[in-house]
Amino acid sequence: MGWVESLQKAIEYMEEHLLEDISIESIAEQANSSAFQFQRVFALLTDTSVGEYIRRRRLTLVAQELINTDRKIIDLAYTYGYDTPEAFSKAFRKQHGVSPSEVRKNIGKLNSYNRLVIQVSLKGAEPMKYNIVERAGFSVVGIKREFSLVNGANLKGIPQMWDEVNADGTDDKLFKLNNGEIKGVVGVCVDTRGATSSQHMDYWIATEYVGETPIGLLSLEIPASKWAIFEVHGPMPDTMQNVWKQIFSEWFPSNSYEHAGTPELEVYSNADPTSLDLYSEIWIPVK
């Protein structure tokens, strides 16, 4: 089953169980994916987190019930997963800009978030340049932090981590240490399921290095793999994110490769990150 079909199956599952307390693990299972990988791909393709999608859909549906039924607001609050009327009213107003009681009086307009439909977008005018290589395992050294995947916290925290690394000189240190085949500094996403929880991930800013781990840094072993290496041309961060979207919405659905489930790499040079000619890479382990 391809990524698009898998994601659509998972979306259908969410919609069928929208009023239940479903886990990210059960949702990801519908897509034959780990919770970690599913949340990352879902956020890449939809620009929202799984939790935010469910919240928006619930508040869209409860608004329809407010208009079309006479059910008490307190009963609707409990049905749609809110412990108190106050919590429900706060969330409702945040999405719709009006209170539940105002909707009952036909005051204001509502914001409707419709059911997602994932579609493949094939754009022959925008070719993707990549090559397939096989490498033995290798080591990277650098720093790591744990990020929550809940409500897209990782999407906010990782850019902040890069800002700090660039400001405190760690980035320059890693470029100087680099002595492996991959030239540059890498960002590495690591699934930590089994170590902490499927709701968290480790993110590394590191560089390929052969030798004893330098003081103050940590070492990570990247397993042997077949890699699909994609070229990225243009300024950060938008160009990198656009290529990620292309990989999962266009490249995977059009190829026989599957994600191998091991860490992915983003490779950055020390050139001006705002340059239109900036060259970077995305390395994805495939099978």
Automatic annotation (TrEMBL):
<keyword id="KW-0238">DNA-binding</keyword>
<dbReference type="GO" id="GO:0043565">
    <property type="term" value="F:sequence-specific DNA binding"/>
</dbReference>
<feature type="domain" description="HTH araC/xylS-type">
    <location>
        <begin position="8"/>
        <end position="106"/>
    </location>
</feature>
<protein>
    <submittedName>
        <fullName>Transcriptional regulator</fullName>
    </submittedName>
</protein>
<dbReference type="Pfam" id="PF12833">
    <property type="entry name" value="HTH_18"/>
</dbReference>
<dbReference type="InterPro" id="IPR029441">
    <property type="entry name" value="Cass2"/>
</dbReference>
<dbReference type="InterPro" id="IPR020449">
    <property type="entry name" value="Tscrpt_reg_AraC-type_HTH"/>
</dbReference>
<keyword id="KW-0804">Transcription</keyword>
<dbReference type="Pfam" id="PF14526">
    <property type="entry name" value="Cass2"/>
</dbReference>
<dbReference type="GO" id="GO:0003700">
    <property type="term" value="F:DNA-binding transcription factor activity"/>
</dbReference>
<dbReference type="InterPro" id="IPR010499">
    <property type="entry name" value="AraC_E-bd"/>
</dbReference>
<dbReference type="InterPro" id="IPR018062">
    <property type="entry name" value="HTH_AraC-typ_CS"/>
</dbReference>
<dbReference type="InterPro" id="IPR009057">
    <property type="entry name" value="Homeodomain-like_sf"/>
</dbReference>
<dbReference type="InterPro" id="IPR018060">
    <property type="entry name" value="HTH_AraC"/>
</dbReference>
<dbReference type="InterPro" id="IPR011256">
    <property type="entry name" value="Reg_factor_effector_dom_sf"/>
</dbReference>
<keyword id="KW-0805">Transcription regulation</keyword>
<dbReference type="InterPro" id="IPR050959">
    <property type="entry name" value="MarA-like"/>
</dbReference>
